[in-house]
Design brief:
This protein has helices at 23-33, 85-97; strands at 16-18, 42-44, 53-59, 66-75. With 101 residues, the protein is of the alpha+beta class. The strands form two sheets. Strands 1-2 form a two-stranded antiparallel sheet. It has a two-stranded antiparallel sheet with strand order 3-4. A hairpin with a 6-residue loop joins strand 3 (53-59) and strand 4. The radius of gyration is 17 Å and the shape is elongated. The N and C termini lie far apart (44 Å). It comes from Macrosiphum euphorbiae.
Length: 101
């Protein structure tokens, strides 16, 4: 079992992704998350937009087209974690407190 390295309180996804080996890509992740990442760190799927996670594989065209669900989801090339859940939750909770019924 892997644990999300982002320490902000959130319900981590079971799907996690390893830190990129490419130093340039790793730097983008570090900048986006605001933390230094180690090789052993993992980032959960909740920090990525849905279009950046590839969970199926497709082949063929027309009537010969078929789709296979991947056992292990993959990130599309160039995917960077953008969603900081603690900020979103904090904003939504503050907005809910100010709503008058």
């Amino acid at each position: 079992m892997y644990i999300c390295c982002v320490h902000a309180p959130h319900d981590a996804s079971k799907t996690t992704f390893s830190v990129p080996k490419n130093e340039g890509e790793k730097g983008k992740w570090e900048k986006a998350l605001g933390m230094v990442l180690k090789k052993s760190h993992r980032v959960c799927a909740k920090h990525f937009e849905t279009h950046e996670i590839k969970s199926t594989w497709e082949s063929g065209e027309g009537l010969n087209k078929y789709t296979i669900c991947l056992k292990i989801p993959r990130l599309v090339e160039g995917a960077v974690p953008k969603l900081m859940l603690n900020c979103e939750n904090k904003v939504s909770n503050d907005q809910n407190k100010n709503v008058e019924v």
